[in-house]
Amino acid sequence: MPGxxxxxxxxxxPNRHLQQLGEISESDAVLTRTYFSxxxxxxxxxxxxxxxxxxxxxxxxxxxxxxxxxxxSNPELGELLVGSHYDTVVDGGKFDGAMGLLLAISAVKxxxxxxxxxxxxxxxxxxxxxxxxxxxxxxxxxxxxxxxxSGSIRVVGFCDEEGIRFKSTFLxxxxxxxxxxxxxxxxxxxxxxxxxxxxxxxxxxxTGVVVPNPTEAVQALALKPGxxxxxxxxxxxxxxxxxAAGLALGVVSGIAGQTWLAVSVEGVxxxxxxxxxxxxxxPMAAAAEAITAVEGTCLGSSDALGELSVEGxxxxxxxxxxxVHPNQVRHENRLTVTDxxxxxxxxxxxxxxxxxxxxxxxxxxGxxxxxxxxxxxVHPNQVNIIPKWVNFTVDVRCRxxxxxxxxxxxxxxxxxxxxxxxxxxxxxxxxxxxxxxxxDGRLVSKLQEAVRNAQPMIQQxxxxxxxxxxxxxxxxxxCSASGGSDSSSCTxxxxxxxxxxxxxxxxxxxxxxxxGHDAMxxxxxxxxxxxxxxxxGGVSHNPAEYVDPxxxxxxxxxxxxxxxxxxxxxxxxxxxxxxxxx
Length: 582
What we know:
Layout: H1 3-22, H2 38-53, E1 57-60, E2 66-70, E3 79-85, H3 98-118, H4 123-130, H5 142-145, E4 152-158, H6 171-177, H7 196-202, H8 214-221, E5 228-236, H9 241-245, E6 249-255, E7 257-266, E8 270-271, H10 283-299, H11 345-361, E9 370-372, E10 376-379, E11 385-386, E12 389-398, H12 401-422, E13 425-434, E14 437-438, H13 441-453, H14 455-467, H15 470-481, H16 488-496, E15 510-513, H17 518-522, E16 527-533, H18 549-568
Parallel strand pairs: 3-4, 3-5, 5-16, 6-15
Antiparallel strand pairs: 1-2, 2-4, 6-14, 6-16, 7-12, 7-13, 8-11, 9-12, 10-12
Helix pairs in contact: 1-3, 1-18, 3-18, 10-12, 11-12, 13-18, 14-18, 15-16
Cofactor: Mn(2+)
Keywords: Hydrolase, Manganese, Metal-binding, Purine metabolism
GO molecular function: hydrolase activity, acting on carbon-nitrogen (but not peptide) bonds, in linear amidines; metal ion binding
C-alpha cells in the first residue's frame, strides 16, 4: 500500500480530527465540553461518523457513550475494548481524553486496511483510497471489511469522565462496567438541581429519546460478564516524565489511589480592624496553617512555624477574602466520614508529635505521593472582615494503598491540631476514596512490544514529515487552529518542538499514572493496560495542553500495531506468550 495512505490514516486524519473536535465547545472563548451540553451532543455525532468511516457499526447509548463495534470472525476470543472520554473540564485542552479516543478510531481504520490488503480485497477500494484528498477522510464501508478480523473490537467514547456537570466522575465507563448504580450515580445532582436520573427521564440525554426507567436503561448498558478480553487506553501523560526523557510513548504500570478530603474550619466573624490578633478565632489563618501542615506531611517535613515578637506593636492583619482559579478539587471519585476531635490542645500536640515521628520512618521517596489543595471557599469573603468559616479540599494520591491511608491519618491529625490550638472548630470528611489500580503484567509486555514493533512505521512517518516539511507546518496549523501565534497552546507546542525532538524510540519506559482514568472503572470487569503519550511541559487541564503532531502519529501507529497483534495475528501474540512485568 502506498506510503501516503498510511500517513493519511495514521497522521493526517487523527491530527485533523483532534483540531476539529477541539473546535466544538460551549464557549467561543475557551474549550468547554461538559456532559449533555449542545457541544457535547455535537461532538458525539461527529465521533459516531468517524467510527462509521473506519468500518464500524456505531451508535450512541442511553447515557451518551458513543460505541463503534467490529464483530470478529471468532467470537470466542471476546472483545478488545478500547477508548477514552470526549468531555472536557472547563477551560480545558484538546488532547485530554479526546486524543486517546480518536487514535483508537484511526487505529481500527488502519487495521481494516491491513486486513483488506492481506485478504487481497483492496481492489474495489484501491482507487478511492489512493486518490483521497488531504482534506478528506478515507471512508471504509462496513460491508467491505465485515468478518476480516479474528477478534472483535469495541471502541467507546465515554460520555463523562471529568464529572463537571453532576460532580460525579466516570459516568460513562461505570455504566458499561455495570457499577454506576452501585455508586448511586443516578442520584448525582447538577447545579440546576436536577439529578442524572431526572435528566434522562425528562430530556433523554444525547439521544433525545426520553428514558422512562433510567435504572433499567442503565442496567442494560452493562457489558456481559466475560465478554471483554481486556481494555486498552492511550492517553496524554499529563506529566513531564516522557518529555524529560526525550521519549514519545511509555506504558503505564498502574493508577495511583486517590482520596479527597473536605475540610471545614469555623471561627468567629468579626471586624478586621478592632479585634487584637491574640483574641481572634480566625478560620482563615487556621486554614492557611492547616494547608501548610498538609503540604509538610506530603513532603515528609515536620517543620513548625517560627515565632515573631510583636508585643506592644498593636499589629493586626486580616486575610478576609480569597479567590482561586480554577477552584476545583480535581474530580476523580468519592466516599467515608471522619471527624476527629480532642478536649485539649496538649492531646493534639502529643498526637502530632507521634505522627511526626512516624512520618520520619515513612519512605516518601518512591511512593509517588502528591497532595493538592485545589479549592477554597470563604464566608463572607470580604477584605476587612475576619471570616466566619473557610472550607477547602485536599486531594491525596499515592502508589500504595497502605501508605496513602497512613498519610491521610497524619494529615487529618495535623489539621485538627492546628484548629484545636487556634480555638476554632474543624471537621474533616473523606468525600472520595479510590484504591490504586494495577495494569495487567502481560498487557504491559504486549504494549511495550507493540511500541517497539511500530518503530519502522514511526520512522517512515517521520521521514515523510521531514520530506514534506510537515513537522513545522503541522505545528503552525495546530497553533492557528487554537487561536493564532499568541495562543498558549501555540507557545506550548513550540516549547515541545525542540531541536532534539524525536518520535522514534528503542526504550519503552513503564510509568505510574497519578491521574485517574476511565481504565479505573473498567478494571472492575477486565484486565487493563494503558499507554501514555508525551505532552509539552507536562501541562494538562489547561488551554496550553499540547501534543506534537508527530507524537500523535507515533501513538496511532503503536495503537494500530497493538490491534494488529491482538485481533489479526492473535495466534502468534496470545497472552500466554507474555510474562508479567516484575
